[in-house]
Fold this sequence. Notes:
Elements: H1 2-23, E1 27-33, H2 40-55, E2 64-70, H3 78-86, E3 91-94, H4 97-106, E4 112-117, E5 136-140, H5 146-157, E6 163-168, H6 173-185, E7 192-197, H7 201-211, E8 217-221, H8 225-229, H9 231-240, E9 245-247, H10 250-253, E10 259-263, H11 265-280, E11 296-301, H12 302-307, H13 314-319, E12 322-324
Parallel strand pairs: 1-2, 1-3, 3-4, 4-5, 6-7, 6-8, 8-9, 9-10, 11-12
Antiparallel strand pairs: 10-11
Helix pairs in contact: 2-11, 3-4, 5-6, 7-9
Amino acid sequence: MRRREFIAGLAVAWPLVTRAQQGERVRRIGLLTGLAADDPEMQARIAALRQGLERLGWSEGRNLRIDYRYAPDISQVRAPAKELIDLQPDLMFASSTAIAAALQRESRTIPIVFVEVSDAIGSGFVASLPRPGGNLTGFLQIEASITGKWLGMLKEIAPRLARAAIMGDPKTPPYDYLLQAAAAVAPSLAIEVVPTRVETAADIESAIVSFARVPNGGLVVPPALTTTQSRNLIIALADQYRLPAVYSGRFFVAPGGLMSYGPDRIDTWRQSATYVDRILRGDKPADLPVQAPTKFEFIINLKTAKALGLTIPETLLATADEVIQ
C-alpha cells in the first residue's frame, strides 16, 4: 500500500511541478558585441556568461531568452543597438565601450550591464564607480596605471627599446585615457611614446610599416575592438618587422603574439552574470558599484621570443602564469 500511495503522490505532484515551470516568467536579455559570431574568443566569452547565469538559476529555453547581435563594423553599431532596444528586453549586455555608448544613446531606462570598459566615468556611463547613478553598471577592463606595467615589460625584454607605439582607436575615450598614462611614465624608462591611431586594418598595416622604419621600437596594444578584430594582422606584422609587442590578453599570444598582461576576460564575463542576476531579480544598476577586475594573467610565447632573437629574463619567466612553448 505504501508503494502505491507513493506512486499516486508522484502522479499528483508531477503536474504541479510542470505547471510551475510552464508558468515561470521568461526574462529577456539583449547581448551586443563588436566581435563576429564565429570568433573563437567571442564564443568562449559568451559560453562563460551562460555558465555563470546557469549557476545562478538562469537557463536559456527555460526562464531566459538571450537575443544576440554582432557588430564587427563598429561604425554600423547603431542599427543592431536600436534593433535590440526595440525588443524591450529586461536588460542589455554590452561588451565594450563603443557598444555600451551605442546602447546608452538608444535608452536611458533599460538596465545595461557592461564588460570590457576601461574608463566608465570618462565615457559618461556612470557618475562614480561606487554609485553609478544611471541605468549602466558593470565590470571594468583595465585602469590607466597598467600602461606602466606594459612599458616596463617591453623594456625588460628588449633593453635597447627607445620607442613604443601605443595603438588604439581614437574614437573611443579609453585611448586618450591610456595614452596620457603611458606618456606620464615613459620618460622614467627612457622611452618615447608614439601615438598610433588606427580605425581600420589598412590603418594598422600602414602605421606599423611606418613605425618600423626607425629602429629600437616596440608595440603596446591596449584593448580595442579595432585591434582585437585585426589581431592576426598585428601579430604577423610584428613578426615581419621584428617588433617586440605587449598585448592585453591571451588571445593575442596563443596565435603567436609575444606576451600579454591583463585581466582574465573569461573570468570577467563569468562574474558579470552576478549583476545580470541581481538586476533581473530587482536591483537597480544605479545602486550596483562598478567592479574592477580581480584576476590578471601574464602570458609569454617563448617560440615568438626566439624568432625575434629575444631572451626572456628569468624575472619575467618566474612571474608568468603561462609560458607557451
